[in-house]
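Reviewers of the previous submission asked for a worked example of the structure-prediction workflow described in the proposal, so we include one complete record here. The input consisted solely of the amino acid sequence. No template or homolog information was supplied to the procedure at any stage.
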Amino acid sequence: MKILVIEDDQKTASFLEKGFKEAGMVVDVCRDGLDGLDLALTQNYQAAVLDLMLPGLDGLSIIEQMRLEDIKTPVIILSAKHTVDDRIAGLQKGGDDYMVKPFSFTELLVRVQALVRRSSGQSTATETTTKLSLADLELDPWKREARRGGEIIPLHAREFTLLEYLMRNRRRVVSKTSILENVYDYSFDPQTNVVDVLVCRLRAKIDKGFDSKLLHTVRGMGYVLKPESE
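From that input alone, the workflow returned the following structure tokens.
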């Protein structure tokens, strides 16, 4: 899941970035309204969290322009402005939710996840709509839980993010570059073997002890998640 954060306060922005990344999300952080609008209009995000009082362009104008351009990314307003009129204005401009600072990050995370579920047509009442599966491997993005053969697989945040990315692209070869962009949020080659190491760790957890291997290396191209029989 990729999130856009538009927040000019350095401490708040860093806190949000750290929290979302620990939850296994890819995060773009912008501290200027104009730059934030440019990202919102040109990049694909599952959700956006923004302040109202921003340099360059205020948050309400960002939301208004997004909706005029038919950008349907769910937006949560996170602001110190707390009156009923402030909340009404934010929702009328196209915001999907409104939280007042100071805030609970856990509550914010749950609200972001709920908005993404609704925007993608998923329902918390129907468990099967939220799960991803391949052979006997099953992943629930909302519970942050992975199982194979019915047994829970303990995964660190980055391992879970990689598995979710591979599951959403199952049976398709994904390159190291795409993993760097979608799992590590790198838009450049760090000249390290971080992807190889992460894939190796994940493979050990989802394939070790099973006769059928699911995570395969495609030489010169990348990796693919699929049953051996295919």
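Residues 123-129 have pLDDT under 50 and may be disordered. We consider this example representative of the routine output the project will generate in years two and three.
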